[in-house]
Amino acid sequence: MTDDAGPTGSALDRLDLTPTRAAGLERLAAFVPRAGRWYANHGGVDHGPDRRANAAALQPWLASRLVTPEEAIAAVEAEHGAAGAAAFRAEVEAPLRRRDWLRARPGAWRAHRLRVEQLFRAMAKSPSLLGAYEEAVAGRTGLDAADGWARELADTGWLHPAALRAFASLWIFSLRLPWELGADLHHQLAVDGEAAGHVLWREVAGLEGGHPPYVVTVEEISRVSGGRFHPKRRLVEEHARALTEAPRPKADHAVAAAPEGDEQPEPGLRVGWLITEASLDGTPPDAAPAALAGIGSGPHRSPFGAGERLAAWLDGALADGLARAATASGLAPNRLDDADWSASLAAWVRAEALQRVWTAPPTPGLIAERLTAAQVRLARDGVRLNWPTR
Questions:
Q1: Is the CB of residue 169 less than 8 Å from the CB of residue 205?
Q2: What is the rounded distance in angstroms from the CA atom of residue 177 to the CA atom of residue 188?
Q3: Looking at the domain 109-252, which fold is it?
Q4: CA angle (304, 307, 308) in 5-degree steps
Q5: With contact defined as beta carbons under 8 Å apart, do 86 and 40 qualify?
Q6: Cα dist. 179→26, 112, 207 in Å?
Q7: Tens digit of pLDDT for each residue in 94-107?
């Protein structure tokens, strides 16, 4: 039996979110044959967690470069050509475009995090806001689509891209909850969540020029969910206006990103190779490293940290990246304490008598923020933390 989700009973129906490069490559190889025009026509429907054959669902691996966006696009274009792979390419490149937005506005991430912290403090003083938030997170609002997708995010750690946009719209315009809390929830639970993901929520809210607010309708919810959800019309806001926000101070836009040394470490220096969630493809420095370490972001994903499923994914992905880097370099992997990046890196540098630390270009937001602070700390000891410009 087949429909627009593809053949039922397909091995692709089961989304195996194993945090390894091998699992990501297996999903990519299995999906390539249907990633062309068929995907453009049928990939925009969320048929539910047991029917994923029409979803590429590669972003969990792409976000941390366990599988790189470049190799995923190349594989699909080799099969379908550039025109046939256009829809797949657009999906892969959307998060990269949001990263570029955030990279160009280094103060925006900090402003977002401060706002999230303010809202958490506000919830502690407002039983009504706290209750509405907790009902939405637990999937107890009475709005079937919002509840179903909230539970699915908590249970699986992933939402179909079309479902995520509709969920964001319901959160903002129907449940009337702060968009920042929804973006934070996704960052704290989703295995493909990243700092730049909050830009999608800004787009849905209508805060970005060129992106009118996405106010989902009852009919769209039914279509996007493959008929699984039929919310009551009175619970869906269909005539909402774009949100507004106070302009960020000019200082926010002017905050400088961390210095990005594009030179490789000088020959003869004792170099440490640092692996983060931005660099799980395992590209080493040109200079042969003398020590290898990895550090994760789980405790810093949200004021609540990371959900259990996401924390396990992050640990597994980092372990996989470290293991492959260790095999490539012949070095023993060292897993650093995630709680305080600056202190952990300084201790590692001292223990290994390192003169330079080399890592991949950080993703904007959380990873860049942590590495920037560590860069300042290491500079006090005369040690440079470098990464190449993109």
A1: no
A2: 17
A3: DNA Cyclobutane Dipyrimidine Photolyase, subunit A; domain 3 (1.10.579)
A4: 135
A5: yes
A6: 35, 10, 11
A7: 999 999 999 999 89
In what helix (H) or strand (E) does residue 30 lie, and over which residues does it extend?
helix 21-31
- 3 state DSSP class of 56: coil
**pLDDT of 273:** 96
Structure tokens at 206: 């209508």
Local structure of residue 246 (DSSP, 8 states)? P
With a threshold of 0.90, does the pTM exceed it?
yes
Fold of 271-386: Rossmann fold (3.40.50)
Residue 246 to residue 323: CA distance in whole angstroms:
46
Q: So where are the chain's domains?
A: 2-102, 109-252, 271-386
Contacts of 254 (CB under 8 A, 6+ apart): 107
Amino acid symbol at 29:
A
The token duo for 112 is 């977002």
Identify the DSSP state of 170: I
Q: What gap in Å lies between CA 307 and CA 361, rounded to an integer?
A: 26
Question: How does pLDDT run across 74-92, given as a tens digit for each residue?
Answer: 999 999 999 999 999 999 9
**What are the distances in angstroms from CA 153 to CA 97, 220, 305, 390?**
23, 20, 16, 32
Is residue 205 within 8 Å of 245, Cβ to Cβ?
no
Q: Which two tokens stand for residue 54?
A: 């029409």
Distance CA 102, CA 368 (A): 11
| CA 355 – CA 342 distance, rounded (Å) | 16
pLDDT of 254 reads 37
Give the separation between CA 287 and CA 4, rounded to whole angstroms: 51
The tokens for 166 are 């509709």
- In sequence order, the 6+-apart residues with CB closer than 8 A to the CB of 216 are 165, 166, 169, 170, 173, 224, 236
